[in-house]
Specification:
This protein has 465 residues and is α+β, with helices and mostly antiparallel strands. α4 packs across α8, α6 crosses α7 and α6 packs across α8. A hairpin with a 6-residue loop joins β10 and β11.
Length: 465
């Protein structure tokens, strides 16, 4: 397994595996960078590292960010997810399952120094976060948002650490609107501090080892650094903040913003492209006030294109595939693999069986999938001759193996996600199970056509005599 301990070592791995493209042309952080990254994701291309980035001024003239680079799409496809986890593509779900098991937790390691502490500005130095290369991603976004920042906090009463993602819109030179969902651990920590009339000190770490970014997207009883440690097989190095009482800030981050979530303060932030593929509405959200900014030499700003593949992988696919596997495997020991395709925004799941053992097995498995998580609204069950990571193969199975009058069933009035556009405002809607397995005993049929994969380089080189 190749050693990864920060963003830069991960970029080296991506470059060696043909999963990184360096964009030398000057690119605007207003829409253009996100458009390029989304195009790379849509076409199966490598992750872009933008070497020259700028912000257009009021006259449209480029204002460059000297020495800064911008990176996107760290874990936007199955290939890069596997590289980030240090496993084969087929082992992603199992690897995440092991990392999420508390029995395999590896707590972080405290260190005194950190590369991001080399360059520090505090409030007395005149911080202006507008000087950071924070992008505006989609055309309908309300402003420039931090989307790839991992918020590092701890509960003021229990002292338990937490990692999370929270969209953060620039509202002023030192101020962000920070969207915090009611069910998140960060919300509970903020509420406890707010009840005492106190601010909650947090840090926002940007430009990280992807193990930390993956861990931050998981729901976990305890500090999500333990998940990152389990992925790496060693402790993640963390350090104490300069102006906040947070001692688990990733030591090898590219950029860290320290500050406080203020008690009793709410301001409007949004809209922003969301995981369901629509623009999320503006919210009256808590206010984050920056007290210090620290960064590495020649820093790399890392972003997540919101409402696109990486957003779905981190928030929906990787944390939930192990849960899905656990539920469907309980229904059938014949389950071979599961996948939550990122192009379906976390609402569709695919379960792969071996050769099915009886005609009712696919329906039982689909019902188990619906019980695993409210988000899952469509479950497609296939057999192991279908590549569940290939959308064209999945569509082929749906069009050649499903009689829509007999091979689907519905679960009306079921609880789903409140933000699922197909459900009502409380998340109530109809779930659909689809049996896309092969032989249903209706007619004899031949075997599927298959061609072996060949190494094309052997045929495309110079001819020899």
């Amino acid at each position: 397994m190749e050693e990864i301990y920060d963003l830069r070592s991960y970029l080296d791995v991506l470059a060696r595996r043909g999963q990184l493209v360096r964009i030398q042309r000057a690119v605007s952080i207003i829409h253009e960078a996100a458009d390029i990254a989304a195009t790379c994701e849509r076409t199966g291309g490598p992750a872009p590292l933008f070497e020259q980035i700028y912000l257009p001024d009021a006259d449209g003239q480029p204002q460059f960010f000297p020495n800064w680079r911008l990176f996107a799409s760290a874990v936007a496809n199955q290939e890069r997810v596997a590289l980030a986890l240090g496993c084969d593509k087929a082992q992603v779900t199992a690897t995440m399952g092991r990392a999420l098991d508390p029995a395999n937790a590896i707590p972080p390691l405290q260190v005194q120094d950190a590369p991001w502490k080399k360059n520090v500005l505090t409030a007395s130095d005149g911080i202006d976060v507008n000087a950071l290369p924070i992008p505006k991603h989609a055309v309908g976004d309300g402003g420039r948002f931090i989307t790839g920042g991992v918020v590092v906090s701890k509960h003021p009463e229990t002292g338990v650490g937490n990692l999370s993602y929270n969209r953060m819109e620039i509202l002023g030179p030192r101020t962000f609107g920070m969207n915090i969902n009611q069910w998140r651990d960060l919300q509970r920590a903020h509420a406890a501090a707010e009840a005492r009339g106190r601010p909650l000190g947090v840090a926002v770490a940007i430009g990280l080892d992807p193990a930390i970014m993956i861990a931050a997207g998981c729901k976990y009883e305890g500090d999500e650094h333990n998940i990152a440690g389990a992925i790496r097989g060693r402790p993640v190095e963390v350090t104490r903040g300069i102006t906040v009482d947070v001692d688990t800030i990733p030591a090898h981050a590219e950029l860290v913003l320290e500050g406080h979530i203020l008690p009793g303060a709410r301001r409007s932030e949004g809209p922003l492209a969301e995981f369901h593929g629509y623009y999320g509405e503006p919210w009256e959200s808590p206010v984050f006030e920056v007290t210090a900014v620290g960064w590495r030499d020649d820093p790399i700003y890392q972003t997540i294109v919101p409402g696109w593949n990486e957003h779905i992988y981190i928030g929906n696919v990787l944390p939930r595939e192990p849960l899905l596997m656990r539920f469907v495997s309980h229904a059938s020991k014949n389950v071979r693999a599961v996948h939550i395709p990122p192009y379906t925004n976390g609402f569709l799941v695919v379960v792969q069986l071996g050769k099915k053992t009886n005609m009712g097995e696919p329906r039982n498995v689909a019902l188990a999938a619906f019980a695993a998580h409210p988000n899952f609204r469509i479950c497609v069950v296939v057999e192991d001759d279908v590549n569940i990571y290939d959308p064209s193969d999945l569509l082929w199975a749906l069009t050649t193996r499903v009689d829509w009058g007999r091979d689907i069933f519905t679960v009306p009035g079921a609880q789903g996600h409140e933000m699922d556009p197909a459900n009502d405002s409380k998340g109530i809607g109809t779930k659909i199970g689809i049996d896309a397995t092969f032989n249903k005993g209706r007619r004899p049929y031949g075997q599927r056509v298959s061609y072996p994969m060949l190494e094309l380089a052997a045929y495309l080189g110079n001819p020899t005599t």
